[in-house]
Structure formats: structure tokens, C-alpha cells
């Protein structure tokens, strides 16, 4: 995962699920019992990306048992970019679940709260409670479908694949190089301090008795 730019890596607040082997274990009872949403009237199944002013808690209902898969990403992380088309296709594979994504650099308080400072990080919520963390290093549509099935018992639609439209959005699959404002501010502050210290030193040197005579001689 991509490390944070300005925050230390925090310990996860909930354990990662153990790797689920194939075979008889896949028939186990689901760990999370999700209330599947009514899909009637929904024509397009897609994920919602939170903007900087939207709070994740506004989209999670603490009084329900519906499940939401939430991705914490950053647009400058290449792992987030490579995951994007696979995550974009998930809502079509699981139309009865909800899918959200948020830029972790814009929601630092949430990243700290849920221990998702390193990205990409995927949490399965039931209501407003995080229930499981996706822990596979191979982040593909197939491993994501297996994770959801192992946690909820909900099977993915078999005809869903990563399509060309999934590479276009809504989650960006192209890296964006934003300005690191903290680094820029630090450089400017340091430069200003050096200039101030230099000028200050020159002023003090000329005020010291005897210094000006040396120059006159």
C-alpha cells in the first residue's frame, strides 16, 4: 500500500480477516448478515465518491443491517489507480450492496479513526460499524468478489467483468500529481527563515563595536 504523505502509519482498529481457502470452507455461514437493498427502479449500479465536504457517516445508517464496501484511496497512489477499474465494476456484480469511495487525503480524520492511513484500504461496513478489512495484496475483481462472498454469503453475478468503461471512472485509474502543500509550505518557511537569519546576522555584526573599524582599515 502507499504510505501516507504526512501522517504516521497507525495500527488497524479491527483485525484483517484470515485468508479463506477454497473448497469446503466457502460453505461456512457468512460472518456478516447483510440486509440486501431493494434494487427495483435502479437502472445504473455504480459507486459513489465522497467529495471533501461529505461525511462518510451521513451515508451509513447505524440503525440498519445493510452493508457497504468503502474504499479509502488517494489519486496519487499507483496501487489505488490499478485497483480502480476492478472496484468500479463491483456495484454491477453486487447490486444489492452499496459501494463508496473517498480520498483519504481529504478525509484524514476518518483515516485516523479507522486505521486506514495507508492506501488503498477497503472496509466492509454493516450499518455504521466496520466488520471486516480486505487483506489481499492481489486486488482484482475476483479476489474482491471472493472477499464479499466469504464475509456475507452473497454471490456475485457471474456475467460481470471489468469493462472498458470501468477504466474511465467513476474512480480514476490514471494517476494525478497534485501539489504537496505541506512540503511546499515547509520549503518556503525554511527559505524565509534562512533569509531572515542571514539578514539578522549581518545587522548584528555591524552593531558590534569594533567591527566597522576593521572594514574601514
Automatic annotation (TrEMBL):
One of its GO terms (cellular component) is cilium. InterPro entries: Thioredoxin-like_sf, Thioredoxin_domain, TXNDC15. Keywords: Membrane, Transmembrane, Transmembrane helix. GO terms for biological process: cilium assembly. SUPFAM superfamilies: Thioredoxin-like. Residues 9-21 have a biased composition (Low complexity). The keyword Iron does not apply. This is TXD15 protein. It comes from Pitta sordida.
